[in-house]
Structures are given as structure tokens and as C-alpha cells.
Amino acid sequence: MALWLPLIFALGYAIVSMRFSVWRTQKMLDAQSHPLRDPKLEALTARMAQALDIPQIKVHIFDIEPVNGLAAPDGRIFLTTGFMKKYGQGLVTEEELASVIAHELGHVSMGHAKRRMIDVTGQNAVFMLLTTFLARFVPLIGPWVAQMVSRTLMAHLSRRDEFEADAYASALLIKSGIGTAPQKSLFRKLNALTQNRADGIPAWLMSHPKAEERIGAIEANEARWLGQQRISR
């Protein structure tokens, strides 16, 4: 039983921490957001809604400065005020913002927000367990090793979710007649647009795949889909 106590404690602590993070994030989103009001962007979301055969796609503006889009655990989609400012300055087009919305719809459709919460809970549990055991044998570097292992695990899981959401967005953008060009052009701008993007955003809503890899995956998907269309004809 003594061997199981650290595992039980680690899992319990991770679950409580995650639930608190979700609650705090929900409160923050409720207090610091409002519905999107932009005719050009809403016209594009209406086209995507028609492609999905749903009445509408609701988007909210999250009042923080970092440039980002996110999908909350309750299924709501947000663009940040920082993103909308870039749009107002002409640095981002409405089609590029539509690609962000399509990407976040992918996260919602595939249940990624909830899956990420589970992943982070596991990551925190792994970190606590490794820290506890490694500290006994390598007290100076044990916590560092535990942190590196848990971060590597989370990075892998986050990359998986991002590529899945990108593929969903590409398919939706093509179906709605917008195309993937805005999706790819936005990725080319990300480094300049997303400095300090993590400020105020929970870790379980973050991921950092390379823009070049994402563009390559989009183009590979398009080539495969076009090939399948030719074969079906």
C-alpha cells in the first residue's frame, strides 16, 4: 500500500489542480469576453456554418493582448483582442482569422480541450512521481529530469492535437470555398505576431508546433485529397 500512496497523491493533486485551473479559466473567460461583431468575418463564419450544416458559428473576443485563438472546454471559440488589433491594423486578413476559427472548431469537434486537460493531469502526475523518486537517488538533478520528461510528453501530445485541428480546418476551408491559402499565409506570420503569446493563457490551452511543419502537413493533405478525388472519378 505504501508504494501506491505517492501515485494516489500525485493523481489526486493533479486532478484538483486541473479542476481549479478549468474553473478559474472559465471565470476569466466569462468576465473578460464579449461576442464577435464584425460583418466581414461573420460573413465567412456563416459560409463555414453552411458547409457544416449548422445554424451559426459563435465566436467570442477574449480581452487579452497576446495574439491567439482558443477553444474552451465548454466548446466556445475565442479570438483575443490582440488578434483583433492585428486585424484592425491590416496585418491579418478576415480570411486568415477565419482559418483560426476553423482550427479552433477542429479542437472542439475532436474534443481536444478536454483531452488536453486529461493529458496535463497525467503530465503533472508523472512530474510529481518522478520528482519524488528521482530526488532520492539524484537529488540535485532529479527535479530537472522529471520536468524535462513531463514537458517532452506534453509537447508530443500537443503537436498531435494541433496537426489534427489543422487538417480539420483545411477541409472546412476548402469545403466553404475559402481555401487553405489564408491558413498557410497566417502560419508564415506567426513568429512576428505571437511574441509573448503565453501571457494569461493556461498551459493546457497551449502548444507550439513549427509553422513550416504545419504548412507542409496542410499541403500534404491537399495533395492526398486531390489524388483521392482523381481516383474516385
UniProtKB/TrEMBL annotation:
Binds 1 zinc ion per subunit. The chain crosses the membrane at residues 125-146. It comes from the Bacteria. Keywords: Hydrolase, Membrane, Metal-binding, Metalloprotease, Protease, Transmembrane, Transmembrane helix, Zinc. The keyword Metal-binding applies. Its cofactor is Zn(2+). Residues 35-220 form the Peptidase M48 domain. InterPro entries: Mito/Outer_Membr_Metalloprot, Peptidase_M48. It holds the Pfam family Peptidase_M48. Signal peptide: none annotated. Belongs to the peptidase M48 family. This is M48 family metallopeptidase.
